Amino acid sequence: MNIEQQITSLRNELREHNYNYYVLDNPTISDFDFDQKLKQLQELEKAHPEFYDANSPTLRVGGEVTKNFETVPHNFRMYSLENSYSKEDLEDWEKRIEKMVDGHVEFTCELKYDGASISLTYEDGRLKKAVTRGDGFQGDDVTANVKTIRSIPLQLKGDYPPLFDIRGEIVLPFEGFAKMNAERVELGEEPYRNPRNTASGSLKLQDSAEVAKRPLDCLLYNFQGERLPIKTQFESLEKARHWGFKVPDAAKLAKSLDEVLEFVNYWDVHRHELPYETDGVVVKVNNLQQQEELGYTAKSPRWAMAYKFKAEQVSTVLNQITYQVGRTGAITPVANLEPVELAGTIVKRASLHNADQIAKLDIREGDTVFVEKGGEIIPKIIGVDFTLRDPNSNPTEYITECPECGTELVRQEGEAQHYCPNFEGCPPQIIGRIQHFISRKAMDIEGLGGETVALLVNNGLINNYADLYLLKEEQIIPLERMAQKSAENIIKGIEASKQIPFDRVLFGLGIRYVGETVAKKLAKHYKTIDALRNASEEELVTVDEIGVRIAQSVVSFFTSEENIETVARLKSYGVQLEISAEKLASQTDTLSGSTFVVSGVFTKVTRNELKKLIEDNGGKVSSSISSKTNYVVAGENMGPSKKTKAEDLGVAIISEDDFLNMV
Ligand code: AMP
Ligand code: ZN
Q: Closest ligand to 425 CA?
């Protein structure tokens, strides 16, 4: 096999594995073997940029940054759906359309997925464009972001038509959503409210590498195109599956309205077993010929009808409001409920979010409250049954002191949450900070878990994360459920964490609002912890993507004597508090102040490497040419419109070699 054949064969193989894993949910290869093959392909592609393919499986990890999403017209208008809420609504609809087509109508029933709608254009089996719904006539081109969604095929299989659009819904399954939120809470940030908004927000992130990290999925349901080889809606779903798309197999053919109602009733109960959110059923006339006859109203097709499920709701007694203290000191009020069944699970607790929420709904202990399970994982209280309120009850007084340490709470202007300011002495904050420090994305200390941290703190062995580095095996062994071996592993894990690079240490310090990405940016910009510590708020905000909120938080972190001392101790123990010399050597300021646009295909380096070179040398990468652009690095096949634009604006167009000489 020559190189090109090797690359093609690896791409095909990886595509198939992606398909098995993400579409069929049936992997036939271990994650490890998959990663090995992916790495192999990445290396081959790197060494042979002449075989670049915009739809290679290696591009699933993203990397392209879009500053402004281009608005583009839809090839076919994206309509809304008419809603119905009862059996009678559906019966009326059936009568209406049977009269219009003068005959019997059969239906395809599908679930109505609750996410962000998307239109995908395929040309010769390759994904060309992905556009959001927008106003239905035009939407935003979010192709780079959508390409990172693993279940969307970049290359189709079988006897697909040469040109068509396919529509679907981008959803964020519950499990992934819960994981994302757990990480946000870890960071002291407010959790996202529901999967739908988070899914649509994800499509508009500027950095596609960030999108790639989100566990998005895409479920398809409709074709648009000229002379497609399809006669019915049901057949179109089967075809979509054959060509490589993910189409849930819940869809059913219904020969009569009774069968439609059966489908509706079944899923009204069983939808809670699905891994993603649904808010109803979509009933569609099955025969496409009939669909055409029925046509559209000003807003929606006459051949389809959404049937909306009622959000599930129960009422129960609120026994007590308790308050949790997070790692950052944020207080979260929690409603402790008389246990009640809701959407198939027993609910005992519900989030009350913050003081304003309690005041707004006038929620009191002893009230009978309505609890609803919408998109949120944790059910929420949507109101009080005032008819059942004890006339002698008093409005809830929000706590003024920390339930864990008794310190008076503070609430900053413009913030919804109350905080316990006893950073140094409040037990859940002390434990939470150390737990964050050792977590996987930070110091990743093997052998040490969250409960052990609590045990160590409660036994007075550690009081902050620097203390970890002074721990001795003999101190750990006598603790509850500890053995020689586990103590040894803890000490080994702590020792090994001294090799963790600076950006992850910085993330581990637990500075509020400094998440993984921000930590990377700051580490890259300041290079050492001392430089960061000396930066003023005014300086910090000049760093790309660092806003006032983050800047203030960094400055405030370093005003604490205790933090300064802890960091100094970490340094003295050998923890990485600056970028390693090796990494530093690959970074310069040569291109500082210059903005680059990269266009076309390159031969010596890949596009991503080129962008990395620009950034590592202090330059900025932008996705579109404007008067602020200093250079366009032009590869082969640079788009003619970009070229004209660059020439019109007098922006320098340089070759790959010119650029490489600059660095
Ligand atoms: P609405 O936004 O309430 O008008 O509902 C219309 C939207 O439902 C469409 O734009 C799609 O994004 C979405 N939808 C979800 N599942 C389906 C489905 N199976 N068939 C058609 N549309 C669907
Ligand atoms: Zn406290």
A: 2
